[in-house]
Amino acid sequence: MRNSSRSAVDPFIVMDVMEAARRAEEAGRRIIHMEVGQPGTGAPKGAVEALAKSLETDALGYTVALGLPALRQRIARLYGEWYGVDLNPERVVITPGSSGGFLLAFTALFDSGDRVGIGAPGYPSYRQILRALGLVPVDLPTAPENRLQPVPADFAGLDLAGLMVASPANPTGTMLDHAAMGALIEAAQAQGASFISDEIYHGIEYEAKAVTALELTDECYVINSFSKYFSMTGWRVGWMVVPEDQVRVVERIAQNMFICAPHASQVAALAALDCDAELQANLDVYKANRKLMLERLPQAGFTRIAPPDGAFYVYADVSELTDDSRAFAAEILEQAGVAVTPGLDFDPVRGAGTLRFSYARATADIEEGLARLEAFMKARG
Ligand SMILES: Cc1ncc(COP(=O)(O)O)c(C=O)c1O
After folding, report:
1. pLDDT band at 15 (very low <50, low <70, confident <90, very high)
2. Partner of 45 at 20 to 30 A CA spacing, among 6, 84, 138, 316?
3. Which atom in ligand 1 lies closest to the alpha carbon of residue 98?
4. pTM of this prediction?
């Protein structure tokens, strides 16, 4: 059968690395996973218990498309707790992960052929989802002096219908402060571009609190998820905050595209919002891991790294070591038994000279991974 031209999206290269790691494990090797962008921990205990209880009494059928009212209200309260923002719960839409949020946002905001700016390096699926929807992703190559975040000059005169930012970002972990976020919002709005802020790594921040776009404007879409801070990747539940006059538009699309986010996951997510002690303990692990990474990656020979403000990644410039990050990642997997992600996933051009290391796993694994990387680099000379 014929395929649409829209369907010709690129694979997620990290998935290929994961498959190679799985094969090595099947053959009996112990692989240290620094490729996967997900917590090693499961959902918080309180979330699992709340779901277990509701399984006894609730049929868990469809919810309304915008999600359980109690969950929308609790998320609105989170904005008061985290940022001092007073948010109308009616503006909160529960989504099947932030990935579901992207589909809803891009469909609600853009027409076929519209151009949407995304930072490079950046999360690969933005580009692929935009393409699959018949939209045009416009890579904005970011500069090291801007900590690989876009600035207004990067998209001046580009005739964008939308601008998508992420703070903390994947793969760099860098954040936009108030002034930087404000400048982007202003420049996007002046160009008539809708502003979308991916805030999925909020809660996982080290030096300063992450800024939500909602502190600066109500005229934006904010996308978030229970996958990262709340440690619930496989549950497929996230949320989006949209302007009041956009709620009905998004609701109609959500009704037709998904009906609703998984009901069971919404029940668990509601309880997860009150599991701060356990989630802060996860954060303590990331903090310890980050410290180890920043000390020992340079010792191993990965010297061109910047301290991440948030998330659980270190993005390393390895262009002095290779011009083929995919082959280099394969070599590291083969010889050191450490799975890492080639930068090409995040930046189709400069990513040939970068790698992303994830430190979301247990500290013992990170220590072992770093020891192996040191030995590998020493042997490589
Ligand atoms: C920046 C960013 N946005 C979105 C996602 C997708 O997350 P979700 O599990 O909420 O669909 C990821 C996953 O790694 C990510 O890194």
Report:
1. confident
2. 84
3. 10
4. 0.97
45-57 vs 263-272: helix axis angle to the nearest 10?
Answer: 140
Of 200, 202, 205, 231, best ligand 1 pocket probe by most atoms within 8 Å of the beta carbon: 200
Amino acid, single-letter form, for residue 287: K
Peptide bond into 168 cis (omega under 30): yes
Distance CA(239)–CA(241), nearest Å, equals 7
Q: 23 CA to middle of ligand 1, Å?
A: 25
User: Amino acid identity of 295?
Assistant: E
* The pLDDT of residue 380 is above 90: no
Q: Residues with Cβ within 6 A of ligand 1?
A: 37, 97-99, 123, 166, 170, 198, 200, 225, 227, 233, 238
Question: Which residue type does 137 have?
Answer: P
pLDDT digits (tens, 9 = 90+) for 63-98: 999 999 999 999 999 999 999 999 999 999 999 999
